[in-house]
Amino acid sequence: MLMSRSLVVKVTAGAEAPERCAQAFTVAATALASGADVSLWLTGESSWFALPGRAAEFDLPHAAPLADLLAGLLATGRVTLCTQCAARRSIEEADVLPGVRIAGAAVFVEEVLADNAQALVY
Fold first, then answer.
1. What is the mean pLDDT of the chain?
2. Which of 5, 58, 73, 106 is the 20 to 30 Å CA partner of 119?
3. Nearest C-alpha neighbor of 40 from the set 11, 67, 82, 17
4. Residue 105 CB neighbour total at 10 angstroms
5. Name one Pfam family in it (predicted).
6. Which H or E run contains 110?
């Protein structure tokens, strides 16, 4: 178990790069299942997955359903939508799935610089 470790995963890819996108969600969900404290950041084209129903539309053969991975992350991890990415897509707080927060670079840096944190960018 990775109980005392935390992992920050920043995913920039969306449906336009499905393997990279799915890999980020899979790694985050696997770390969460292993006992790590996980924070998933949705940036760039992955920002759309903060909206209801969008993850269910994602399909990649031989990959776990993105909606299921996201649900697990929302249940016991943290999911954050980048402030600037949301603004560029006209996504507001009222639009996102319950449990998704909107935050900016200062919060991302704080999480990444935590004593026991590791960061991955996809």
1. 94
2. 58
3. 11
4. 10
5. DsrE
6. helix 105-112
